[in-house]
Write a structure and sequence with these properties.
It contains ten helices and 31 strands. The strands form eight sheets. It has a four-stranded antiparallel sheet, with no helix packed on it.
Length: about 575
């Protein structure tokens, strides 16, 4: 090897700045490498001859197409890697073409020691299992067709046998039987069957992956607003059975899961309202949040919610069209919530009648859907247009403040009551009072409700008088029944859709609630019981077909019950 530093030629380096001090260099003469050092370098770094031999040995071990005698001669003569000729490439390609696919690849087999599972040795015809319509599976195992499972090898596998002699099946058949067993144990719910039938009725039987991707995208978008998905269907969920007479004294009622168990309220439930056609329940209170639940009696999922920061909610009600909800609190304005678009409109002006409407917390929508009635001050009840919120007319009674009012079934008139027990009937078409009568012995009227030919008046003493409006004497309806089961002030009255049940409640006492049977004028004896957890009932409501009944209490719970007579 050449010397690394020359002794005769002095080496000088150029530096920027101050010149460095002179350094003395010694010339180093490398000694010749001995055999030990050369062997160590070859072992660590290798050499060209060893690399060539390794490549040739690797090629001979994998693609050996000559005899063993020729191999021995080649090992003695190998010194370098020779280039591959065109004839050799053609011969190698021909060799690969003659091989089977199984010889070209190595497949991990299944251990023969596995209990009940072996590899099929024979290449018999495999049954083709047609996959059910649906999105493509996320993963498929090609080895399932090559497996053989013995159903008699385990107690768990014996459950999959179709007959007693059934023993060895393929992996694909094993997967199919497992799926069938799972579907028997956990059947498809009714709502999923309805959804599948609806999709089949649409006539879309395509099985392309693009179609399923579009469906998944649509489901993902609808999942963000489940209320929109519910409102897309026009089917009604109310009972279509004919009205039958309700048995007296004994009420067939069942308690279900709380309606708001998925989203509890943080305040007392001030108002409840069922959707006119869909199984939706609207609840609100002083926590300033409206919640709509999809009532099914099992999970009662939260469909959507709306938070109003500026006002606590005292009254909320679905419109008769089912596409809007009205809500108001102790403010000079109320809101109209469009359930389809999600927009919220604020109604705040009455154009010259603000002095009689200082708060919009107490209102009721007419059954016809045209009017909104608001209890004002000074004996006034103002009527607004339910479409745009404009003031239409107003009615004023004498003798104090309006305690409560109720709409007639067709929305053609309203009945207003004052604290003195006087009832005023006002016509919306003629815009004048058409009748006036007094409650029998009633003092301090607090609430009123009406249905069909019944009208009920609740008082501060806990007495409820029920009148038959079809029978009158000098304009005075005939007193049908007097209910005196409660001893505290009546805070709520509710009729069922057919007028056979009257619910009366008082929030002044715990569990102060009763159901009355109007055809007989008696109270049901079997409900509520001492174990019914009603609490202090602050609101109550029947569903559109009276299948469900809900009560809200001061603890923020919504108790849900099923009336089996109407279900």
């Amino acid at each position: 090897m050449s010397k690394s530093l020359s002794k005769s030629g002095s080496t000088k380096s150029t530096f920027f700045g101050s010149p460095p001090k002179k350094q003395k260099f010694r010339s180093i003469k490398n000694a010749e490498k001995d055999e030990v050092e050369l062997a160590l370098e070859q072992a660590v770094f290798g050499d060209l001859d060893g690399f060539a031999e390794g490549l040739q040995e690797l090629a001979d071990s994998k693609f050996d197409s000559v005899d063993e005698d020729d191999d021995d001669d080649d090992e003695d003569n190998i010194s370098e890697v020779s280039p591959v000729s065109d004839d050799d490439q053609d011969e190698e390609a021909l060799t690969f073409q003659n091989l089977d696919n199984n010889d070209l690849f190595i497949v991990d087999g299944v251990s023969d020691q596995t209990s009940g599972v072996t590899v099929l040795e024979n290449d018999t015809a495999k049954p083709v299992h047609k996959r059910e319509r649906g999105p493509p599976p996320a993963w498929e195992d090609s080895d399932d067709e090559r497996l053989s499972i013995s159903l008699s090898s385990s107690d768990k596998l014996r459950k999959l046998r179709i007959s007693e002699d059934d023993d060895v099946i393929t992996g694909v058949e094993y997967t199919s039987r497992l799926r069938s067993q799972f579907q028997r144990i956990y059947p498809v719910p009714e709502w999923a069957k309805t959804s599948q039938n609806t999709k089949s009725a649409d006539g879309n039987d395509g099985s392309d992956s693009d179609d399923y991707e579009a469906e998944d995208e649509e489901e993902r978008l609808l999942a963000t607003d489940p209320l929109e998905k519910i409102l897309q269907h026009t089917a009604t969920f109310t009972s279509k059975s004919k009205t039958t007479l309700l048995p007296a004294s004994i009420l067939d009622i069942s308690r279900l899961k709380d309606a708001n168990q998925q989203a509890p309220s943080h305040s007392a439930i001030q108002t409840l309202s069922f959707h006119p056609t869909l199984p939706l329940l609207l609840s609100a209170g002083y926590d300033r949040t409206l919640r709509i639940f999809n009532v099914d009696g099992k999970t009662n999922q939260l469909a959507t919610s709306l938070h109003i920061r500026s006002s606590p909610v005292q009254t909320a009600q679905f419109h008769v069209d089912g596409r809007r909800a009205f809500l108001g609190g102790r403010r000079r304005y109320f809101y109209i919530w469009d359930l389809e678009s999600g927009s919220v409109d604020k109604i705040s002006r009455m154009y010259g009648h603000e002095q009689h409407q200082r708060s919009m917390e107490r209102f009721k929508l007419s059954p016809c859907g045209r009017f909104i009635g608001l209890i004002g001050s000074g004996g006034w009840v103002n009527l607004l247009d339910a479409t745009n919120g404009q003031w239409i007319s107003g009615a004023k009674i004498e003798g104090g403040q309006v305690a409560d009012f109720v709409w007639s079934q067709d929305g053609g008139s309203i009945s207003l009551v004052n604290n003195s027990g006087e009832v005023w009937e006002w016509s919306t078409s003629e815009r004048r009072f058409i009748s006036r009568w007094a409650d029998f012995g009633g003092v301090g009227i607090t609430s009123v409700a009406a249905s069909n030919n019944w009208i009920a008046l609740g008082s501060q003493s806990g007495i409820v008088n029920v009148y038959d409006t079809n029978k009158r004497d000098d304009g005075q309806p005939k007193l049908f029944a007097t209910l005196d089961q409660l001893v505290t002030s009546i805070s709520g009255l509710n009729f069922s859709h057919d007028g056979q049940i009257l619910g009366l409640s008082s929030r002044a006492k715990k569990d102060a609630f009763r159901f009355a049977h109007l055809p007989t004028g008696t109270v049901f004896k079997n409900w509520p019981t001492s174990g019914t957890p009603l609490g202090r009932v602050t609101s109550s409501a029947f569903s559109a077909g009276s299948e469900f009944f809900a009560t809200g209490n001061e603890a923020g719970k919504i108790r849900l019950f099923k009336l089996n007579h109407y279900a």
